[in-house]
Design goal:
alpha+beta, Fumarylacetoacetate hydrolase, domain 2, nine-stranded mixed sheet, five-stranded mixed sheet, globular
């Protein structure tokens, strides 16, 4: 199956969330490169421009992976989302970053020090996790990667200036649903410090001849695990030192 055929089927599954997509094994991407190509084909099929990216560690130690985020899927704090628009919906509380300037394409990878020096701002986010695929989460990793890495929407809190003194490894946070705490007793990002994921994403572009643009935000993985969303409620999350992020689920 060509990437375009996959993208059309994924977009159809988005329109009919009660009919998730079933693919035969021979229709799956065989490499990470094929999966990333399929992501971009889905974006093209949606007639969307990138609004940002998500990045997180892979099950294989030392590697990272990411997905493009369709621009109209980035929503401001306080947005309303309807449960029945999705086959499944979960929530992850994350931290996103923006950069001051573009990273220009080059053959030499950017270092962590170069990437961190270009950080401009940060914000709390809710990533809404979903899937267009039958049998999720028991779906092959490369197929999940092609399906925008299970991305549904991103609710974005207000950005503040980047603070390198922020405790990225063990922040204090609250997460409530309808005023009731649903925050795990212990929180943490799978990467430890999510900033460590940023060079991979930048170099994923620049070492392949593409600039990484400053208007793109980057959200960097959940501190609160995956919260299943099953009933209407107002969700409110806040990391100490960052403005809150809020979602109305109806």
């Amino acid at each position: 199956m060509s990437p375009m055929s996959f993208s059309k089927q994924v977009c159809l599954a988005m329109q009919e969330p009660d009919r998730p997509l079933v693919l035969a094994q021979e229709q799956h991407p065989q490499t990470r490169e094929q999966a990333y190509e399929m992501q971009l084909q889905v974006l093209e099929q949606l007639q969307q421009s990138p609004g940002g990216w998500k990045v997180g560690p892979t099950p294989t130690a030392g590697l990272a992976q990411g997905s493009v985020l369709p621009g109209s899927w980035l929503l401001p704090t306080g947005a309303q989302v309807h449960l029945n628009a999705f086959n499944y919906l979960g929530l992850e509380m994350e931290i996103a970053f923006r950069f001051k300037q573009a990273f220009s394409a080059r053959t030499v990878p950017y270092t962590f020090e170069e990437v961190e020096a270009n950080l401009q701002s940060m914000a709390a986010t809710f990533e809404l996790v979903t899937s267009r695929l039958e049998g999720w989460p028991s779906v092959p990793a490369l197929l999940q990667l092609a399906d925008l890495l299970n991305h549904g929407r991103l609710i974005v809190g207000d950005f503040i200036a980047y603070d390198r003194a922020f405790d990225f490894q063990a922040p204090t946070a609250t997460l409530t649903a309808g005023g009731r705490s649903v925050c795990p007793e212990k929180i943490g990002n799978p990467a430890g410090d999510p900033r460590l994921l940023l060079p991979w994403l930048v170099n994923h572009h620049t070492c392949n001849g593409l600039d990484f643009l400053p208007e793109w935000l980057v959200t960097t993985g959940s501190y609160t695990g995956l919260q299943a969303l099953e009933s209407p409620a107002v969700y409110r999350g806040q990391f100490q030192g960052l403005p809150p992020v809020e979602l109305t689920l109806s």
